[in-house]
Amino acid sequence: MQTRLTWEPKKPNTTANPITVTLPASPSVGEEIVIIDARGTFGSNNLIVARNSSNINSAASNLTLSTNGQAVTLVFIDS
Prior knowledge:
By secondary structure, the chain is an all-beta fold. The protein is 0% helix and 30% strand. The radius of gyration is 12 Å and the shape is elongated. The protein starts with a strand and ends with a strand.
């Protein structure tokens, strides 16, 4: 399976506020989303990954990133 990056890597700025990044509504198998805490602020202002109807780690719930310097790659594998 060949993967492709759906978005350019996201480096959201949570310095002032928590923010939400919403996943694509109709992802294709193999699509990747990369999120990087380049400013090291997820610990004080979380980033919420809104699942947009897709499961994340087999769960029907959003993902909260709350560790400073955290980086994740999410790969859509099935519906």
